[in-house]
């Protein structure tokens, strides 16, 4: 009997791993450096950063005999979502006071985006146009049938009042897009979906990093945020996220949350608890919360220090051009300002075994005392090698 | 400015919580008992059961300074999927030897089913008919557009050779369905999706519980299993699951896994690690694995003991009818054999505050020394109250 496979028509999917990381891994040169790690922070020793308060809490939880390991409800750990919403908006924000913000505990920020996207597909069927800014997650909406329209995205801003009715904006890094709004747009039912993956790691100040949300609250917008809390605590492997919902009033909020719960039930039923338990224990204890905030601040200061050093070393090497943009940018991931057209990036990859993306946006925590000289000297060489080409 | 909510058309979804549990919670009677908890086992003290080996391992992991908390790959923790596949099929099974079984580490068995369903929706578009046996998960496929056909499901079997081409069978409890197959059906491209939520907790013997898989392997079937490992270790709150793929050869397997990884990336990107880490540490250590197996066995023996006691107490009370079916059934969840038509179930719920579903399938671990007398006396009353009605 010859048997026909039911999988006969299934082709091999392209590797998910970016080709840059793949080439890096295949490179046998001992000097090779990868500067494009996403969504994680490295210590000066090249290890994944963990907030100092996390290991203590992990141990305390493992030793706590009073905990039980029952299923979480479908919408997750309530104390966790409550603590996270206060962190995101500030305790006294009007959406909290007016009881019109809520959250569903999800499997990381990707799970949160997936959940939000499924909701929009069902309940915002008329939204055919999506504008995606500084976020990879928005692609999911395109795969679900929406059309990406880049027409309203200008280098320094987005004009909301030109957006069509019922359009959706997915916004990864608010700093990258200055949303200008000279006319009221609320009657256009524009929907915003913020992707907030590392509150506090842009400026080192939690409130400052998400202060922009207040603007949209005050303008009467309703929106979703897919929020990750894994990264800011250094619990990368637990996938702790929230889908945040801001609605105009409590009644609408409850309707949206109830529909989200139905979707969550099919997605994973109950979210995993460990990461949320660690984070909630920290956020609900003022002393631990303070220690965590200090550790975040320390991380951000260290990032700024690395950037300063890179800039200073390039100055001492006499590298042509201004390098102020390096320290002008917030956060761990910033543009180095190299020129792909003049093959400066390619020079670094091919000749120096330093791997970075074409747009030269790198993770500065990948630079440390051991590799900074090699990296800055290589940048200098790359720039000199293309001098005069502009 | 009046603002129109973008959520105006979103109605309140019906509560997910079953109405039975809801009524139970609202019942203020101190005698109330809930016998319908799903997917968890209670100890004789009414607490969620945890395998004795889990707390030790939890502590050991929290104290291990060598662990890092980096993201898992999209397909999850490799040592975890490998150990789980060996557990499911046995180390020397031909699908393992021939390298044509693989797994994707998922967020619980619901996550595994969601992932498998998404795959089938894309790659088995022609499968319009689904037969769902003893599984709640199959409903997801109906929501995705497939039609449920109960025509081939008979009380004691399913006739695979009568199934239409390209149909899908979702099978929750293999004991409930005797799949008979007198003619070869492989050329019909019938696809099986097993939902295995508690290997070892049916008979107390891990191998025996999943021995039926060997039959389908030997008949040349390809299939998926959505497997939960949370329940058999008592780590209910971590959602540890696997989507298992059996293909006819390694090449086909790799194609399917590669497509599943693409879907996983959008669903949650990286699965959470804690549960998988605990389970892998136990499965990879022969002494701990043995201790775990013993704890499973103890749990199953306890379930059998409860069932024996219930039967014996009903016999002593002189309750009319035979109650052998209670001990004839395997596992924690079994039919009590009460009659919904004669309102025996309703009698228990309304008059006795004992909550059980209409089909009288209860979780026997909810019965313990404190409530067994009240429960059996109430069953006796319920049966007597409807005597003569048949």
From TrEMBL, chains A, B:
EC code: 2.6.1.1
Source superkingdom: Eukaryota
Alphabetical keyword list: Aminotransferase, Pyridoxal phosphate, Transferase
GO annotations of cellular component type: cytosol
Keyword Transferase: yes
Repeat among keywords: no
GO biological process entries: aspartate biosynthetic process
Entries under InterPro entries matching the protein: Aminotransferase_I/II_large, Asp_trans, PyrdxlP-dep_Trfase, PyrdxlP-dep_Trfase_major, PyrdxlP-dep_Trfase_small
Residue span, Aminotransferase class I/classII large domain: 188-379
One Pfam family this sequence matches: Aminotran_1_2
Cofactor needs: pyridoxal 5'-phosphate
GO molecular function terms noted in the UniProt entry: L-aspartate:2-oxoglutarate aminotransferase activity; pyridoxal phosphate binding
Quaternary organization: Homodimer.
Family: Belongs to the class-I pyridoxal-phosphate-dependent aminotransferase family.
PANTHER family for this protein: ASPARTATE AMINOTRANSFERASE (PTHR11879), ASPARTATE AMINOTRANSFERASE, CYTOPLASMIC 2-RELATED (PTHR11879:SF6)
Protein name: aspartate transaminase
Organism (species): Neovison vison (American mink)
């Amino acid at each position: 009997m010859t048997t026909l496979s039911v999988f006969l028509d299934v082709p091999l999917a392209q590797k998910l791993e970016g080709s840059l990381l793949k080439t890096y891994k295949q490179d046998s040169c001992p000097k090779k450096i990868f500067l494009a790690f996403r969504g994680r922070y490295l210590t000066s020793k090249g290890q994944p950063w963990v907030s100092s308060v996390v290991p203590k809490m992990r141990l305390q939880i493992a030793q706590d005999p009073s905990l039980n390991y029952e299923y979480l409800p479908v919408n997750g750990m309530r104390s966790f979502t409550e603590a996270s919403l206060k962190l995101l908006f500030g305790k006294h924000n009007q959406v909290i006071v007016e009881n019109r913000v809520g959250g569903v505990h999800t499997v990381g920020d990707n799970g949160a985006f997936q959940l939000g996207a499924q909701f929009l597909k069902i309940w915002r069927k008329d939204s055919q146009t999506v504008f995606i800014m500084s976020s990879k997650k928005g692609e999911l909406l395109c795969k679900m049938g929406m059309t990406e329209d880049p027409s309203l995205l200008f280098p320094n801003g987005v004009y909301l009042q030109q957006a069509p009715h019922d359009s959706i904006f997915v916004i990864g890094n608010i700093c990258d897009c200055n949303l200008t709004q000279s006319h009221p747009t609320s009657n256009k039912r524009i929907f915003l979906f913020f992707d907030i993956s590392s509150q506090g790691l842009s400026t080192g100040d939690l409130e400052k990093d998400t202060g922009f949300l207040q603007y949209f609250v005050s303008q009467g917008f309703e929106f979703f945020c897919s929020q990750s809390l894994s990264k800011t605590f250094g619990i990368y492997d637990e996938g702790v996220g929230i889908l945040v919902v801001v609605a105009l009033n409590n009644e609408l909020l409850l309707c949206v949350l109830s529909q989200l719960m139905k979707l969550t039930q099919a997605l994973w039923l109950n979210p995993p608890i460990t990461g949320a338990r660690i984070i909630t224990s920290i956020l609900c204890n003022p002393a631990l919360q303070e220690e965590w905030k200090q550790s975040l601040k320390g991380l951000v200061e260290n990032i700024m220090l690395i950037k300063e050093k890179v800039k200073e070393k390039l100055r001492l090497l006499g590298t042509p051009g201004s390098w102020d943009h390096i320290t002008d940018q917030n956060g761990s991931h910033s543009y180095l300002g190299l020129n792909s057209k003049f093959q400066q990036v390619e020079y670094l990859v091919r000749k120096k075994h330093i791997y970075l993306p074409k747009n030269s946006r790198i993770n500065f925590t990948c630079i440390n005392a051991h590799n900074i000289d090699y990296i800055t000297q290589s940048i200098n060489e790359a720039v000199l090698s293309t001098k005069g080409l502009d």
